[in-house]
User: Which sequence fits this backbone?
């Protein structure tokens, strides 16, 4: 038996460990917030499950973490194709805790940006092993201050994420003058009236604001009633890189270095012309100018974020890898554009 201290939920004599579900549309800032939270001294005893859409996981290389209590679930959304994987991931990390290999008293689950939180909550509440040892402490939904309103208009997944929130964080308010834009605030007030939004910049928030939000039994009942029974969303043979009709993920890989101006041209062309259909781009790039210092790039719809240079390659894989999630844009078109610019570079 490990000597694990249990930090039970208040009023929970059974000593269930609290689980927080961190959700929010593609690129809303979930990984940024998580990275920052995990550096907070009060968060040292947290385990994390990260789920990524598509079969080329990158987040585990991009989340700065000094701890090993992180399990990555790749290859689809927890909400549709890999719900069984959520159970397995929680069971795996729970077994590590019981065997004394992992020492945590709080679990955080970061969903993909396309996830419907309802089936995830359903699994947490109904899987016998999970329900025995863990209890939902709250759903924290991140909404991007700059793209959030347009995203809520176009993507029902984003609406559901906001509607189920116990806490809404409006991220990137440094891009909107430190404020939540009025139109977005009004939309959120109707979607999540009991979760007034908090503005957040660069993931800076007191962790206490995110915990102890446990939804009431009546709310849980409502979700359980509204959610499909386990198995209904699990499609055998479902392509993990597809979501709905025309959203798909793909990865561009290039072993040779890429010149900075070729990369900048590619990002500029793509974000300007694909606009809202470039749901997400993230990647790690070997720049010709600094091949030993990998560059992390991000774009969310029409916004290309400030690239960040890492002090070292996070894994032995030193190829440039760009993961894209697009709506109705062919992989071949994007790959050709990238190759043309990189080859000419
Ligand atoms: N200016 C600004 N940029 C931010 C902020 N938070 C996150 N970003 C940037 O937004 C981009 C996306 O952030 P992530 O944390 O990767 O977003 P995510 O929600 O984890 O993305 P997915 O996992 O792909 O859905 C990155 O370039 C971040 O640096 C913020 O508060 N301000």
Assistant:
């Amino acid at each position: 038996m490990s000597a694990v201290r249990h930090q039970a939920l208040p009023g929970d004599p059974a000593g269930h460990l609290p689980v927080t579900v961190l959700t929010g549309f593609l690129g809303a800032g979930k990984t940024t917030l998580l990275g920052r939270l995990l550096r907070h001294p009060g968060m040292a005893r947290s385990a994390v499950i990260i789920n990524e859409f598509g079969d080329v996981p990158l987040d585990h290389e991009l989340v700065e973490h000094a701890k090993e209590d992180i399990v990555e679930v790749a290859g689809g959304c927890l909400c549709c194709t890999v719900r069984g994987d959520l159970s397995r991931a929680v069971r795996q990390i729970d077994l590590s805790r019981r065997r004394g290999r992992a020492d945590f008293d709080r679990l955080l689950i970061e969903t993909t940006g396309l996830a419907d939180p309802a089936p995830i909550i359903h699994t947490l509440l109904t899987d016998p092993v999970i329900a025995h040892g863990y209890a939902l402490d709250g759903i924290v939904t991140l909404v991007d201050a700059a793209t959030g309103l347009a995203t809520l208009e176009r993507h029902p997944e984003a609406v559901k994420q906001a509607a189920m929130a116990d806490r809404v964080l409006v991220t990137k308010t440094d891009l909107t003058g430190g404020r939540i834009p009025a139109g977005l605030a009004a939309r959120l007030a109707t979607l999540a009236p009991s979760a007034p939004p908090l503005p957040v910049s660069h993931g800076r928030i007191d962790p206490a604001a995110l915990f102890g939000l446990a939804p009431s039994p009546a709310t849980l009942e409502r979700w359980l009633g509204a959610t499909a029974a386990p198995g209904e969303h699990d499609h055998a043979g479902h392509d993990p890189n597809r979501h709905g009709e025309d959203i798909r993920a793909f990865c561009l890989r290039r072993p040779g270095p890429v010149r900075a101006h070729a990369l900048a041209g590619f990002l500029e062309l793509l974000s300007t012309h694909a606009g809202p259909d470039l749901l997400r781009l993230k990647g790690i790039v070997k720049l010709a100018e600094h091949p030993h210092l990998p560059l992390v790039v991000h774009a969310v719809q029409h916004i290309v974020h400030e690239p960040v240079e890492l002090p070292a390659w996070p894994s032995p894989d030193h190829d440039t890898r760009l993961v894209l999630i697009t709506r109705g844009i062919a992989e071949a078109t994007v790959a050709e554009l990238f190759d043309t610019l990189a080859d000419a570079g």
